[in-house]
Protein: NADH:ubiquinone reductase (non-electrogenic)
Organism: Neolewinella xylanilytica
Amino acid sequence: MDAVNLPAPGSKTRIVVVGGGFAGLNFVSKLDTRAYQVVLLDRHNYHTFAPLLYQVATAGIEAPDVCGPLRKSFRGKQDFHFRMLEARGIDPDRRVIRTGAGTIRYDHLVLATGTRANFFGNANVAAHALPLKTVPDARRLRNHIFQTLEQVDMTDDPRERERLMTFVIVGGGPSGVELAGALSELRRHVLDRDYPDTPMGGLRFVLVEGSDQLLGGFSEKSSADARRNLEEMGVELRFGTLLSDYDGRTATLKDGSTIETATVIWGAGVTGEIIRGLGEGSVTKARYVIDDRLRVRAYDNVYALGDIAFLTNDSWPKGHPGVAQVAIQMGQRLARNFNALAKGEPTRPFVYFDKGNLAIIGRNRAVADLPKNVHLNGFPAWFIWAFVHIFYLIGWRNRLFTFLTWASNYVTYNRAVRLVLEPSLENQFDPERVGEIEE
Ligand SMILES: Cc1cc2nc3c(=O)[nH]c(=O)nc-3n(C[C@H](O)[C@H](O)[C@H](O)COP(=O)(O)OP(=O)(O)OC[C@H]3O[C@@H](n4cnc5c(N)ncnc54)[C@H](O)[C@@H]3O)c2cc1C
């Protein structure tokens, strides 16, 4: 019996999926629910299109444009049941998953929980740096950026002004590069016009990367192109060092240097969203170890997909990359295998088809590594990036709205959403607002 209210599966096999990200969504959409009952759990009631979060944070598009409501995505799908719940534990012997609302029984369990920001045990950095992993993170970052700019306009102390105008981005992967590029474009095309009393040329964007190159995992050519583009756009690049401390005022780097800043954006580390309960050998480096049928080691009815899964083979001896395409293809492969089993047909191993890598840096500036060693830079890469991202967004509404917003931003050099909707109340508390009891 389930403690959470759910219809009984009857004679069908019940598959419980935890996580409605790229992997979970694609698994459910390809699964033939004439043969299976499927229960999807997610702590949010929407799918997040993470590759465009940086645009939400830099006022390019609205938060709802990168969200797909999970119930709407599967409206009309037979024997599909969504519950907005956080999975907190697995009991593989009793075949149940524990949630805040009670237990749910499963025949097969699919874990697609992705990753969360990891501050590597640094409590100071965790308390003061701003991660970019979720929609609330992106909105918080946007509020912070535009509220900080408002503070700049009200400050006449040159040192404080400099501190407020310095933005540090930690991590030179795709999201760090995209964010640095977007902030630089914002300075060039929008802020000068919005803040006539403040010379916005004083804004500094510092990108800190631990290795000696940007976009690790991309080709050397794309990495060099990204570097050249960001340098042309005035982004300061610091290679071979990491952030070791940040107290909200001063960022200290591993090389001993310090940067006075009101903003540190954290894009340097993630860790797997592991749900406790499976045997020890099934997890390594906060990822579930899986075989080519995507089964978690030592279990024949538990599977892991996407960023949370660790799968090695001859082509990927260090594991598959944590990118959306891997998650999408894993979700689709596992669903096809379940559909094959229902028809008494053999299952197939997972083989990743690498379609390449894309990263946008700014207006008409992007890099693309495509199959057959084709590397593109500039407008062609930018055009492909825009097309692919519109195509993969969830739902026609999001595709249409994002396309129209981008088209308008492109033509007008504007950013539509530079609003501080949830201001931080720090330094803004007005005792008079408390009011008095009216007799
Ligand atoms: C800012 C940013 C930019 C990125 N840019 C790119 C890019 O340009 N190209 C690219 O290919 N990849 C990019 N990625 C990586 C890509 O987003 C991930 O590889 C992809 O999201 C992995 O899909 P997933 O389904 O494994 O996990 P996710 O998409 O992270 O989904 C996990 C889901 O599980 C849910 N969940 C987690 N734990 C629980 C729990 N205990 N109970 C219930 N629900 C839970 C979460 O709410 C979430 O909905 C980016 C990521 C970020 C953060």
User: Anything to note?
Assistant: The pocket of flavin-adenine dinucleotide is lined by residues 18-24, 41-44, 48, 50-51, 53-54, 86-87, 112-114, 132-133, 174-175, 273, 275, 306-308, 322-325, 327 (CB under 6 Å). Residues 3 and 234 are 57 Å apart (CA to CA).
